[in-house]
Amino acid sequence: MKRVISLALSIILVALCFSGCAHADYKKYDSTGERYDCYLPDYIDVAKYTGLEVPNLVYSVTNEMLQKKLDRDRSVFSPDEYDPDRGARYCDTADIVTECYVDGEIYDLFTFELDYRDQGHSVVVGCNELDVPAIDEALMGMRQGETKTITFNFPDPFYRSLKMSGKEATITITMNALYGIELVEETDEFFHEHYGYSINEYRAFCTKNMEEQYNGFIEDYKSDIVWEYIYENSEVKEYPEEYENLYDETLEAYRKAAKDKGTNLVNYVTETLKYKDLDAFYEFLEEYVKDTCKREMILYYIARSENLNYTQEYYEQEILEYAEGFEIKELEEAESFVDYMYGLDAFKERIRLNYVYKWLGNNATVREDITTYVNDLNK
Questions:
Q1: Are residues 377 and 51 in contact, defined by beta-carbon separation less than 8 angstroms?
Q2: Which residues of the chain have pLDDT under 50?
Q3: How far is residue 245's CA from residue 61's CA, in Å, rounded to a whole number?
Q4: Contacts of 223 (CB under 8 A, 6+ apart)
Q5: Strands 365-367, 121-124: parallel, antiparallel or unpaired by DSSP?
Q6: What region does 97 belong to: left with phi over 0, alpha with psi -120 to 50, or beta?
Q7: Chain-wide mean pLDDT for the chain?
Q8: Nearest C-alpha neighbor of 1 from the set 79, 99, 84
Q9: Which of 17, 214, 298, 330 is deepest in the core (most CB within 10 A)?
C-alpha cells in the first residue's frame, strides 16, 4: 500500500544548476572505510545546495491553545466518571482507531491501528491534541464502539506538516474505548501538587515547550523544502555497487518478514502488503532501492564536500532521544540497545546523514519578507 510521506513536495530555489560545490573540495575528503567509498562525482551530479531560500516562519502560542494544554494536563489527574451509555465530553480520554486518506492514499500521521494490547491512539477530547479542530468536533458525543467518517480540511497553516495545510482529507474514526472524567478545578494548589508550579509558572513552562515543539516542525519544513529541490534536480549517472548490496539486503528482509509470518514471499507481498503480484512488488523494490541509493549518495557527497560530521553532544542527544521511547535513559545502555537492534556503526551513519539533512535547512537563506509558509517560492 502506498503511503503519503510527510515531506514537502514543492521546492525553494535561487537557480537551477548542478554541483553545489567544486569537485576539488570533494577530492580533499578521505572516505576510506565509509559506505559509498568511491568518487561520487563519477556516479551522481548533485544540484546546487547552498543559497536556497526558505520563508521566515515563527510560531507563537495563543491563549486558546495554552488553555487547552492546561486542561489536558488537568484531565490526567481528574477523577473517573464511568457511564457506558454517555458520549464523549470535553477532556474525556478517547482510545481511537482511524484510517485517514489524502488524495486517495493512506495518510500515516492520522492513521492509528490497534497495538498488541488491542489499544489504539489515546487523545484527550476537545483539547486540539491533533491540531485539527474538525477531529475534536467529530469525537464529541461519540460512544464506545461507534464509528464515524468525516471529510475535513487541514488547518491553514498546519504546523505538524506544513505541506498539508488547507488540504482536504477523509478520516474514519472508531471509538475503541472511552474514559470519562470530571475535570478538576484549575488552582495553584493543583498545579503545585502535580507539576511543581503555580498556574502562572506552569503557563510559562508550557508556552516555552510548545513554542520549541512547533518551531521544530517549522525547522523540519525548511529542511524538507530545501532537500526536495536538491533531490529533484540531482541526476544519477550510474549506480555504484552499494545498489546491488542494498537491493539484496532489502529483499532478504522481506523474505525474513514473510518467514516470521509463517508464509512465503509471494503470499506475503500479495496478501499482507496488497501488491497485485510478485512482479509489482519487484518493481516497487527496484524503485525504492534506487531512491534510497540516490538519497544517500547526495547526502554523502555533501557531507564530504563540506566535511560535515556531528558533535559528541549531538550524537548523545540523538541516541538518547531514540532510546527514550524504550524507557532507556543512560547513554551506555542506549548504545548497547541500539547495537543489538541495528548495529551501533550503522546507527551512527544514520545520525550523520540526518545531521547533514538538518544542516541543509539551517544553512538556507531566510527570506525575511516572507512570513507565511510557501512551497513554491521563486518558482
A1: no
A2: 1-22, 378
A3: 48
A4: 357, 358, 360, 361, 362
A5: unpaired
A6: beta
A7: 88
A8: 99
A9: 298
- Residue limits of CATH 1.10.3120.10 in the chain: 3-57+212-367
Work out the number of other CB atoms within 10 angstroms of the CB of residue 22. 10
The residue length of the chain stands at 379
Q: State the pLDDT at residue 169.
A: 97
Whole-structure pTM value: 0.76
The boundaries of every CATH 3.10.50.40 domain in the chain are 78-183
pLDDT value of residue 379 = 57
Q: Which residue has the cell 478517547?
A: 94
* Distance (Å, whole) CA 107 – CA 204: 34
CB 48, CB 106: distance < 8 Å: no
Contact 289, 250 (CB under 8 A): yes
d(CA 239, CA 235): 11
In the CATH scheme, what architecture does the domain 78-183 have? Roll (3.10)
> What are phi and psi for residue 41, nearest 5 degrees?
-55, -20
The fold for domain 3-57+212-367 equals Trigger factor, domain 2 (1.10.3120)
- Grid coordinates representing 256 are 525474513
φ, ψ at 331 (rounded to 5°):
-60, -45
Quick one: which H or E segment has residue 134? helix 133-139
Can you give the pLDDT at residue 203? Answer: 96
Q: 263: which 3 cell numbers?
A: 508464509
Strands 93-102 and 105-107, sheet pairing: antiparallel
